Amino acid sequence: MSGQEIKSSLRKMDFPQCTQEALNKIGQLICGKVPSLKQMDLALDLISEFVFCEVDKRGNKIAPLNPLKELQLIEVLFDYFNGIQTESHRNTVFLSIFSGTTFALRSVILSRLISIAIGMPSEPVLVSASAWMQQLGNTSINCNKLAESVIRDYFVLVPNGAQRLNLLSNCAPQFVANFLTAISEIYFTDIKGTINFPPESLLNAVTNWIEGNYKLCIAAQQNPSVLPPGAIAMETTTPIAGLLKWCILAPIFNQNSNLYSRLHLALLNSLLEIPIVSPPRAVSAKHLTTSVGYLCRFTMDIKTRRKKDDTDTIIFDLNEMLILALDRYAQAVQVALSVKCVYGNIGDLISQLCQLPQHKILSIVICSHQVNK
């Protein structure tokens, strides 16, 4: 059938039947072999008109789907992706209909589809979602927005929603690893003068996931998703450095939950599980330096308070907070360097550590690197 004949036959069907058939046609056009430009253009036309109903038959934009039709579309997409057995076929269609360039238009459908897949859980949909995050880069703005949507659905709006996620790391470890990387960029980061902290329920879920599987953080690197022929994936970033930052900075921001201690220990154990590869690619030296500025500013704050004759108790408490943060920082860097999983400019990392206050373990780490160098 010609492209025009395919469109004509689909226009005779009601929604959402036309969507179901359009997805099948799209799969036939772009999967199996490298599609021609004509086939890709036809597939994109079918996606816009019959999947998301964004344009009419003349290509003019039309009003977005109402809530009922939106729900029907999500159900069709969920069933379609769960029904495809071949990962490469499924990921090819998923990445085509949820391309990075259309994220703003289709983000609501994507986030709700993934939220439903998480709640079920649906391994096929989450594997394709992991491929999507891998394709765009799991530290990209779009991935961060998707992660924020999942957090809102399961850790903010739904009471006890996090309890449904206990088995998620076993069902879809690559997705969880990419999700962890995305959320590690959201918290303990200065955004326009404001620093947000993870909800307790999210922190608890993250800690339980990593305690239950020390290899979880490198799952997306060790077993990357299958991408369409010719697709170039962004480098997969592990969540280790970002989550370590949570644990390091927690004391100086009065985040005193015992979960940070547990998470820190779980991350140290995760570092010990990383296999030695050449070149290393698990932890970025640059990412490990992000805590330095916060700790230096906190140190200056202590000195300022001391000059203002703040009580000895306040100064003592602040010093204890700083010491705990430096303890965790030194431990993390020492273990990461010892297992040879750090890539990038390690010399710059050591130089940045030298800016921090005198600390016994940090001094040992710095001296050890200089000797080994």
General description of the model:
The protein has 373 residues and is mostly helical. Helix content is 65%, strand content 2%. The chain is built from 19 helices and four strands. It has helices at 3-11, 17-30, 37-51, 67-83, 87-97, 103-119, 123-136, 141-156, 168-171, 173-184, 200-212, 219-222, 240-249, 258-272, 285-288, 290-307, 312-338, 346-353, 360-372, and strands spanning 190-191, 194-195, 283-284, 342-343. The strands form two sheets. The chain has a two-stranded antiparallel ribbon. Strands 3-4 form a two-stranded parallel ribbon. Strand 1 (190-191) and strand 2 form a beta hairpin. It is elongated and about 80 Å long.
- Give the ordered list of helices and strands: HHHHHHHHHHEEHHHHEHHHEHH
Number of strands: 4
Distance from N terminus to C terminus (CA atoms, Å) equals 67 Å
Calculate the mean pLDDT score and round it.
Answer: 91
Biggest sheet architecture: 2 strands, antiparallel
Shape call = elongated
The secondary structure category is mainly alpha
Question: What is the helix content?
Answer: 55-70%
Q: Regions with pLDDT < 50 over 5+ consecutive residues?
A: none
Gyration radius from CA atoms, angstroms? 24 Å
- SS field, number of helical segments: 19
The multimeric state of the shown protein is single chain
- Arrangement of strands in the largest sheet: 1-2
- Beta-sheet strand percentage? under 5%
Supply database-style keywords.
single chain, 373 residues, mainly alpha, two-stranded antiparallel ribbon, two-stranded parallel sheet
